[in-house]
Amino acid sequence: MTCGGWEGHEPEQTTDRFAAILREEGFEVTISRSLDVYTDREAMGRADLIVQTWTQGEMTREQVGGLREAVAGGCGLAGWHGGIIDSSRNSPDYQFMTGGQWVAHPDNIIDYEVQPVPGERDHPIVNGIGRFAMRSEQYYCLVDPSNRVLATTTFAARKQAPWVEGTVMPVVWTRFWGRGRVFVNALGHVDADFEVPEAEEITRRGLIWAARRSDD
Fold this sequence. Notes:
With about 220 residues, the chain is of the alpha/beta class. Helix content is about 25%, strand content about 30%. It is globular, with a radius of gyration of 16 Å. It contains 6 helices and 10 strands. The chain has helices at about 10-25, 40-45, 60-70, 80-85, 90-100, 195-210, and strands at about 1-5, 50-55, 75-80, 100-105, 110-115, 130-135, 140-145, 150-155, 170-175, 180-185. Strand 9 and strand 10 (about 180-185) form a beta hairpin. The strands form 2 sheets. An 8-stranded mixed beta sheet has the order 1-2-3-10-9-8-5-6, with helices on both faces.
């Protein structure tokens, strides 16, 4: 797990939450507070899962390259909110891998709903989870059409951004990068967001889903 970047997204608290959950699931967890770990081929080669919580950080070409190589080789990549999709804004190579990039949250903190995609109800990340409410940032993103979208949110009319009305925006998605699985959850502005049981459970399941399998 890499932890750092903008403090407003509470990277320490959210990383500690899911580090504890992963340990309960039998993972051995290492937390790095430097993105230089991505250039350490030995460390990347041992990893089954990389969880990035690093909003607004800019990666070097070597860091992005090491991360992409690890994921393409079969290591999973997962994360939530800005820690994964508002990071390395100037690197298309990074964004192609994650499948999305945050653009705006037009109203800051608001009430909105998240709806699992009906056709994906059997997917292990959202199976048994229904529509649920959030009070947080509603992320407007640019997303790759090749993503497998598991949950969405619908934007209401905005005085400052009237064009977003009715937009159905992906919130949770998966994709593959080479042999590696990628999981993104746009929820999780602060640690308290994961007090919503569905938000925490989707993230828990997504981290486990993304991890490298012994038969991969």
